[in-house]
Amino acid sequence: MVMACRVLNKRRHMGLQQLASLAETGRTFLGPVKASKFIIDQESHESVLVSSLVRLLENLDLTSAVGQLLNEAVLAQHNTYRTGTNTLLFLVGAWSSAAEECLHLGVPIPIIMSVMSEGLNSCIEEAVSLQVPVHNLFPHMDNTNPSSGLEAFSATLGPFLQTPSEPDLTQEEPELKDDSHPRSICKLSGKPLMSHDLFRPQDRAEAEKIESLKTLINRPLPGTCCRKSVLIHSRHFNSMDKNRLEGKPSGFLEPPRAAGSTTATCNGLTELAAGLSHGDPGSMELVEAALRLQYQNACVQRGDCPVPFRFDTSRIFTCCVPGLPETLTCVCPGYATLVSTAHAALIQELQNQPMRVVLIQGDLTEKYRHPGFNKPSNIKTVLESMKVSQASTEELWENQILQILTRFNVQLVLAQGNASERLTEKCMDSKRLVIGSVSGHVLQAFAEATGAVQVAYVTQVNEDCVGTGVCVTFWRRIPLDVMDKKDRTAILFSSEGINLVSAVLTGPVIAQMQAKEDRFWTCAHRLYAALKDQKVLLGGGAVELLCLSRLRIIEENSPKKGSEASSRWLHNNSSWLASSLAQYRTTVIKCMATGWRKYLSTLLRNTANYSSESEANTFIHHHLQNAVDSGSPSSYILNAYRELNSIFNSYISNKLEQSPKVYDVITPKMEAWRRALDLTLLVLQTDSEIITGLGDTHIHPQDSEGFLFL
User: Fold this and answer.
1) How many Å apart are CA 332 and CA 325, to the nearest integer?
2) What is the total count of domains within the chain?
3) How far apart are CA 75 and CA 290, in angstroms?
4) What residues contact 519, with CB distance under 8 A and at least 6 apart?
5) CATH code (residue 72)
6) Are 88 and 61 in contact (CB under 8 A)?
C-alpha cells in the first residue's frame, strides 16, 4: 500500500522560485491589450517607460545566475524571431511553478523531466492539425503602366495601448505637406499605393502557371517528433541523437485528425496581416504597406516577378520623428534619416538635382584603419626634417579628401561608420553632404541602384566607384513650432529602382517612440515568419486550448502501474523509474496542464473581455470539456473558430462580423515553447544537483524525515 505524502524538505529549489518570480513581472505584456510599466531607479529616482519584455529585462537587475539564464533565453528568442518572448517568459514561470509543485508532491526529478518533455512534444504534434496554408498570396499583378512607380503610404498608428480601431473611427491626415517640393523624387505615380486593387486576381491559366512555380511546404517542423530534452551540467542545451529517439510512449495517443482541417484557409495578404496584428493594427498596416512596396518594386525590376518573391526585412528601416502628430506616420520608398537643421539650406539647394555618391564601408575619419593596419597607440613616428602636429595631420587629411571629392564631382558621401565633424562641416561649405552611421544594407541597396562600388577609404575612390542618380528631399515641410526638440529634420534619399523602404514613425510623446518602433518590428518579423513558413496556426488561444485538451486526454489514457510499455521512453530505464511512472505520471501531466490554463486565463483577462480569473477559468473549462467530449478536439476548435474567428474572440469590436481572424506564427511559437521548457528543466536539474548532489535522485526509505504522511 502506497501512502500519499507531501515533501516538506526545507531545502527548496530556489532557482525555480526565482524563475516564477521573474516571469511574474511580464504578465501584463501577454495578449492584445498590453499594459506598460514605469521602472524607477531607487538611487537616481529616474524612471523609464517600457511596454515590451526585452525593454523590461534591460532595466532590471539580473545579476543572479537564474536571471542571467532567463535573460539569455529571452534574448536568443528575440534576436532570432523578434516575437514570442512574452509566451516564453510566461510559460517559464508557469512550468517552473508546475515543476516545483511536482517536487512538493514527491515526484522524482527524472520523471518530471521525461513526462514534461513528452507532454510538450505531444502538444506540438497535435498543433499540426490547426495549421493554415498561406502560400500564393502574391498573384500576378497587371502592370499596364510599366513606368508607374512607388507611392508613399500613410497610416495612423493607434493609441499607445493598442486596441482595434473601428472602420468609422478612422482619422483624417492633417494637411501639413507642402506641394511645392518636387514629387518626382519620392512619388512617381499619382495612384495611391494603399488601394487594395494593387493585387488583382489573375485568370485561371496564369494562376495555374504561378501555382506550378510555388509549392506549399508541408514538411514537419524540426524536432516535433519525439524530441527529448537532455540537459547536462552546462548552461547550454544539448539534443540527443535522433536515432535514439525513435521510440514513442504507448500512453501518448496519436493526434486525431480533424475532418475539416483542410477547409481552414487564409484569404489574402490583408486577412493574414490583420490576423497577425495581435491588437496592433496600426503597426501591421505599415508593415503590410512596406511589403506591398517591396513586391511592386520587385515586379518592376524582375518583369512581373518570374522569381518567387521574398519579404526582406533587412531592406526596411525605421526613422523616429518625435514631436509630430501620429497621423503623419507613413511608409515611403527610399532611405529616411534625421539630420541637423544646419543642413537645411544645403538640402534645399541639392534636392532638385541628381547627385553623385560615394559609399564608404568604414569610418570617415583620419585615424580609421582596417584591423591589422592600426598603429600602436604608444608609438609615435616623428619625421627627421620637421615635426607635424596632430591638428595639422588631420587638416592635411581633410584637404586631401576634399580634393578627391572635387575631382570626381561627388555631392553625397554615405559612410557606414562615424564621420568626422570637421570634414562634414567643410563638405557642407563646399555644397557636399556627408551622412554617417548608415546601415550596410543601405549601402548595398544604393550600390545596386546607382552602380557605385563600396570602398574602405575615400583615397580608393576612382571614377568607377562613383554612383549616380541619388535624389534627396525633405520628408515633409514641418512647421517650426512642431520641429524636433533636438533641431533635427527628416530627409529622404531615393534612387530609381532602389530596394529600400522607410517607415517614418511620429508621435507627440518622446517616451513612446521606442515602444512604437519595437511594435513595428515585432509585426514585421511576425509577418516575415508567416511568409517564410508558408503557413500559420489558428490563434487567439486556439492552439493552447488544443494543447490543454490533449493533456487531458493523455491524463485519462495514462498507462496503468506496471505497464512495461510505459517505461520504454524514459532516459534511465531502471526498474525503480518504471515502477514509479504510473504513480506520478498523472500528477506531472496535471501540473503541466495547469501552466497552459494559467496562460489562457491571462490571455483572456488581457483582452479586456473578462474581469476576473474565475470568470476566465469558467469559460476555459466550458470549451475544454466540450472539446474533450466531442472526441476530436481539433474539429471542435475548427468549428468554433469558423463561427467566432477566434476561440476567445480576443479582439474588441461592437460587431462580431468585423472581428478579424487571429493567427499565430508557427516556428517562433514552437521555439518559445521549447526554450521555456528547456530553461525550466535546466534550472530544475541544476537545483537538484546543488541540493542532493550528483547521486541518485530517488527517495530512499531511510530519508523519510521531513515528510508529512497523509
Assistant:
1) 17
2) 1
3) 26
4) 51, 52, 162, 280, 283
5) 1.10.560.10
6) no
In a domain, 562, yes or no: yes
Question: HSE (CB half, 13 Å, CA atoms) of 389?
Answer: 3
- Rounded to the nearest integer, the mean pLDDT of the chain is 75
Phi, psi of 251 (to 5 degrees): -70, -20
How do strand 355-360 and strand 335-340 relate by DSSP bridges? Answer: unpaired
pLDDT interval class at 83 (50, 70, 90): very high
Tell how far CA 705 is from the center of its chain: 49
CA angle 612, 87, 156 (to 5 degrees): 85
Find the domain containing 115 and state its range: 15-134+220-262+537-709
The span from the CA of 238 to the CA of 228, in Å, is: 10
187 within some domain = no
Note whether 627 and 600 are within 8 A (CB): no
* 218 Cβ contact partners less than 8 Å away, ≥ 6 residues apart: none
E strands, 397-518, are 412-415, 433-435, 467-474, 488-495, 501-507
CB 288 within 8 A of CB 193: no
pLDDT at 241 over 90: no
The answer to whether residue 168 is domain-embedded is no
Instruction: Give pLDDT tens digits for 159-214.
Output: 333 433 333 333 334 344 343 333 333 332 333 333 333 333 333 333 443 333 33
Nearest to 89 by CA among 675, 702, 698: 675
Does residue 521 register a pLDDT over 60? yes
Residue 560 lies in a domain: yes
Residue 503 has what DSSP assignment?
E
